[in-house]
Specification:
5 copies of one chain form a homopentamer. In chain A, strands 1, 2, 3, 4, 5, 6, 7 and 8 form an 8-stranded mixed sheet that branches. Chain A starts with 8 loop residues before the first strand and ends in a 7-residue tail after the last helix. With 374 residues, chain A is α+β, with helices and mostly antiparallel strands. Chain A has 8 helices and 8 strands. Chains A, B, C, D, E: Mediates influx of magnesium ions. Chains A, B, C, D, E: Belongs to the CorA metal ion transporter (MIT) (TC 1.A.35) family. Chains A, B, C, D, E: The chain crosses the membrane at residues 299-320, 347-366.
Chain lengths: 374, 374, 374, 374, 374
């Protein structure tokens, strides 16, 4: 984290706009990754895991474990057929499936007959220090939760670890609890991100106080853009959690709502931090700009003092450097021409005069307060 | 899109203000285009199309196809008589017809006895790269939808294509679904526009980082104005869609409302992008201004360092360029006048002195940190 | 409209504050004009007009035309006695009469027992191009509407013309419709004003792109003040119209409410334009300021390049202009003193040296990108 | 009002913070004035006045006039015992009494069992032109109103005059009407203040257009602070009046509520003026800053044009001022050394050359538009 | 408080983020202090105090004093076991305990079955003049209130003093009253802080008027950050108090709600002061920046006037310093070469000419108003 100035980049993928397309069309972006399916089937005592790449993996596992809760974890959305098969298998609306693959959704929570659907934004710095902003979606129906992630990264490792350990409500809370746990992990990662940004702000402020240079504006710009990204994810996330708390779906039990209220508080806290960080970033910029302005002022003062002192002196030297002739073409002395040059001690008097003029000017500047620090 | 600096222009047409005119007056602007009427009459199995320029085309087609849904598509609003005839034919309020021809309406949705009326803003870059902001209005009554567009451009080609293909709900959803499909197409085009703006912002930002020049301010200005235009269309569009969702007109069926909820989400997403783009544009401006300020600072520093170093040296040279005479008019040596000039090695001492003064000044500047990058 | 820079002035009249005065006091400002009364008595078939200056005119006309609607149009509020007589004649609350003469009311609509009262702001550029902001108030009771205007200007000419022509609902809509028509005329005039401002903004923007000078800031300032004035009138006007729509007074019939809804839309549209114009004005200012900043930058660059190139060269010329003597007082050659001056080709070498130094500096500036356009 | 730059000062009194003190503690600030009690006991026909400094004055007067309304006017809060005695006499809650003496309350209106309590901010310029911001509080119970003011100033003179004159509802409206009348007087004085500020703004704007100097920023700063002060008083005042209107206390009769609605309108009008004045002040600052910026620009242009024209010319003069010798030490002519100096008409050619160079530079500047007014 | 520029520092402790951790985990930060337990058991007549470090202290004291109200005051949160034991002893939800140890909560008030939980932010300048922002939490259940503070500082000394004195409701108001008293003390300290900030603002403003220097920007930056911190605590505190007022818990009695309404007013007053202080700080910054800008202007004017006057004069001196020879190599007089130098009174004429040029320039500057103060 030595030099984060060059650090924050944005992984862009083109948005696919199919103007006037039939609503509910499932159109896969070209750069989508092939899906990896992991299924966790668990109850209080048992946990079975299977991996695969197609629909068969899912149907077999669900057929095998009848009294289990199933978490179908799909990493990569590159297979339109799979998404549609899942839609048919569970009876999911086409519009929902479109939202799963069109990965620019704002966080939201929708209730449908027999199932609920939610999305969130996963935001993190990847190993190349690019800011990744991708989509998580989840469908909860009966004893099944399907989670969709864009990348193959094992983002939810902490949740699978807790699941394997089997501690706490995670095995018994049902698919709704898993959905909460995933959302909560995403929120926790916002705090990780905000803590990194907090460090960046501190570094930038230290730089400002110790050795300000023009990278500060770039740093501040990066910070601002990252904060805008987090805020854009956080605001609708709060509304989403609120919708979940007020939801009457059987999937969101009263116990889960208690946890959700906690998540809601975290969300507000994150937004609160974003706003504070934005204000601090703004005041860093203001302070920096005022330092630039002051610096300019100081430079101008040095230039002006030196110039203004020497310009008249140089002029006087120029005067006595003129070649007005003491003699006309006929060799007669022209008495009026620069008599000072021919006077005893003339040179000394000239130097003293210059010195006094310089001194007088310094005195004027001192009176005007130019030697104070404005 | 190589150089979009000169690109965004606004196609202006004068607003016609008829102060104190009777409400409901249909006054056609001078530059309105002559109407082109296209009628699509369709049911699940059949699609008939006819084109024309007057009321007769409409009445004949409607008489002919009795169990069809009719989409009367009117491009060009230059015929007051036609508008009034349609009004009489369908029993439309004069105030509604006035809103159709007075093409500066904000998006809105109004319900009347037996029919509904809605307007939207169509915004796009035309082939001369001018930003066009014109009006779409639609009236839905029974099995008829009439759509009014200002231009002859085939803006809704994608919808007519889907209609001809006959896939999806488009043939069976009734005139309300057509109205939704047109609105949705307009919204999709906002995303096309926003994606173009996103590219412009990226280009401007790249320019800022690579070769900043003063066109950046003009680009930013253009971006801002375009964003203001989209926002002015998007905010009331959201309210309009919301009004449609809460409407109890039989024309807006429950199925359509499901799609409208999707369109509502898109609308919020568009507004969200507009806000983010505005913030990013602002921070580009801030960064650019700080670069200008820094550049000025740098220029001033160079000027000051060079000036301040040479001004005293030039003064010294000036001193020794003075013509104080070594001899008075009588040929006697004046010992006091510039004895330095007659000293062995005087010139070398003078050069060394100047060199040391210059060095001392550089040292002072170095101490003051002027060689650092503020 | 060639030069509107000097154009926007504000006609000020002192506000009269009678601290602690009894509420309902009718205190006439010194500069109020004497009243001119015009009465239009009309029904579907008949229109009678009479003019006068006192109460008698009113009572006679009303006594004469019993089955007519009366519009008592009063221009000029300079006669306290008349106002009080009208109040007694129609049984109007003292607080209402106070609001009529205290012409700094925000637009509002109040319902009283048996009558309604409303005010609006009339805003226009008068023939001396001053921005006039004066008050319109109207009282509607039974079959009578009394309108009060501050000036003698025939502002509502369009309405009286329509009344004389006898077309539309204007003769049959009752006093409430006249009240609506007057309000609507005021609103229409906001659009005239906004259209003038739109032209000014376009002119200012053209000036900015073609020949920016410092009048732009003054223009922008004028635009802003005018926009603030319109906004101050428009916001409460919207609330007023809304109050009228929700009013249950018999004077505001259901038909009038339909028209009022249209006026409400216009009002929002006007506010929308004001906000857009304010944003555009702000961005014009920003652009102008950045141009000033850039201009300064450019000037500094020219100064710096020329200064920095010539300062060292002039110094060198100064060196060789020094008068270090080749001979001491005894006529011996001092070999060390400026031997360059006595060398074959010395002058040519010096010129070449200066030329190379200048070239080197230009190269440095070119490397630093000073010849690019920041 | 010739020079109000030095005018706006803030009379500060230290806020007394008694951390963790028992709520309801009556702690008198050190600089509080001793109380002056004036009692007006009146009914329609009679008005009796008595003055005093202690509780006895109050009890005697109330005992004496049984069928009167009593207005107990207390100027100066320096006697904790008196405040407590009044509290006990009328059965007032300790928290209310604390609010009376802790004179930093925001305007508010609270209802208690059997009495109501309200505070407002009295704001005015005193005779030393300091902005005074002190507290008015009033308690209305049965037929008694007690008003508390911080200063001995006869701020409510207009109300006592009306009371003595006995005109209007003031004698018969009960203590609630007196409370309204006092509040209304305070509001009227906001308009006096705003009118003074309006004059100041006009003066500042005139100064800006005629002879701008740096006092403008100080003036604007003063205006802003004063506007902030008024706004801080006005916003909660509006809520307070609204609370009074919706109050169901018998002290606030229906008639009074009619007047309060008028006061409410005044309050909104005052806030509206404050907001406009703030915007105008801001745009004065913007305009001034842009003038400073333009002035700098102009100065830089003059400096640059003069410098850039003369620097090369001076360099050329410097060249021909060099002392390259025409003869070497041995008296041989060195042909190469400055042959220009020995040429017929050399001097004239040099002068012409300099003149042409200067002209050429002027032409370049003219081409660059430096002689236009940016 | 002589120099508070270097004063405001922020005591930072790292936030501990346990991504995906089981909700309700009690994880103690490394820098948490060991707990000090003080128990006050009191009724109207009796007050018993005991101190300790573990659970036993608590259970013994509670067992001993059965008809007392217990205030368990815990300073330092470094013992996870203790927190958990207290949780088990009183039956407190794990999520609540997590909020107690995770000391970055926003102020909030939550009701649970049988107990209530609230947090506030304690903000003060410690003896090293660092701004400390730490957490207070309180749990009220039956006759017990447990308060948790992060530091060992005796922040609530005033409350314990009042408790020992036994005056007022503090002994009889129950644990809810103690909770109110602690919250109120925290609020009172906000006013202490705001009063310190008010002094700082006054000092900064004085500095601005008397001897402005660049520390002003740093001071303003510090003020702003401190104000942001207070506002972040104050806004949710207001909501919290409001929640308490609307709470139906038996712990918050009707009497306490009366006091809470008072605290609510204080909270709004504090927020109001924060907003005013922010505006004043902003306008100080604006004024300072304008002073910097004016100062620059003044410096530039001096530089320009002196430079522009002397540059042409020095050029003329340079001209007459040129060495154009009066004789060609053959000794012939070259009449054209600088004849001015050989003219009678030439030198005097030259000096007079220079003087007139300088005078003319001064006249031009005076005409341009450069000697006015812009």
């Amino acid at each position: 984290m030595a030099n984060y100035t060059k650090r924050v980049k944005y992984k862009k993928h083109k948005r696919h706009i199919n103007v006037g397309a039939r609503p509910g069309s499932i159109i896969i972006p070209d750069d989508a990754l092939p899906p990896q399916i992991t299924i966790f089937s668990f109850n209080q005592d048992d946990l079975q895991t299977s991996k695969g790449k197609d629909m068969k993996t899912i149907t077999q596992q669900i057929a095998k474990c009848t009294d289990h809760t199933h978490w179908i974890k799909i990493n990569g959305l590159g297979d339109a057929q799979l998404i549609e098969d899942i839609g048919i298998f569970l009876g999911i609306n086409q519009l929902v499936l479109e939202d799963v693959v069109n990965t620019h959704q704002r966080p939201k929570f929708d209730e449908y007959d027999g199932y609920v659907f939610g999305t969130s934004r996963i935001i993190y710095f990847n190993s190349e220090n690019e800011l990744v902003n991708c989509q998580f979606s989840g469908i909860v129906k009966d004893n099944i939760i399907i989670s969709f992630e864009e990348s193959h990264r094992d983002y939810f490792e902490v949740v699978t670890t807790r699941l394997k350990a089997g501690k706490g409500t995670i095995r018994t809370g049902g698919p709704g609890y898993i959905f909460y746990a995933l959302t909560d992990t995403i929120l926790d990662n916002y705090f990780v991100l905000l803590s990194q940004l907090g460090d960046m702000i501190d570094q930038t402020e230290d730089k400002l106080y110790q050795s300000p240079d023009k990278t500060i504006m770039f740093d501040a710009q990066q910070l601002k853009r990252t904060l805008i990204t987090i805020r854009r994810a956080c605001w609708p996330e709060r509304d989403k959690i609120n919708d979940m708390i007020r939801s009457e779906s059987p999937e969101i039990t009263k116990d889960i709502k208690l946890f959700l209220r906690d998540a809601y508080d975290h969300c507000i806290q994150a937004m609160d931090m974003v706003e504070s960080y934005k204000e601090v970033t703004s005041s860093i910029i203001d302070l920096y700009l005022s330092m630039v302005s002051n610096r300019m002022n100081e430079i101008m003062k040095v230039l002006t003092i030196i110039s203004v002192i020497f310009i008249p002196l140089t002029f006087i030297a120029g005067i006595y450097g003129m070649n007005f002739s003491r003699q006309d073409d006929h060799g007669h002395v022209i008495k009026d021409n620069m008599p000072e040059l021919y006077v005893q001690h003339g040179y000394v008097y000239a130097l003293i005069g210059m010195f006094l003029i310089g001194l007088f000017q310094l005195f004027i500047f001192w009176k005007k307060g130019w030697f104070n620090k404005l």
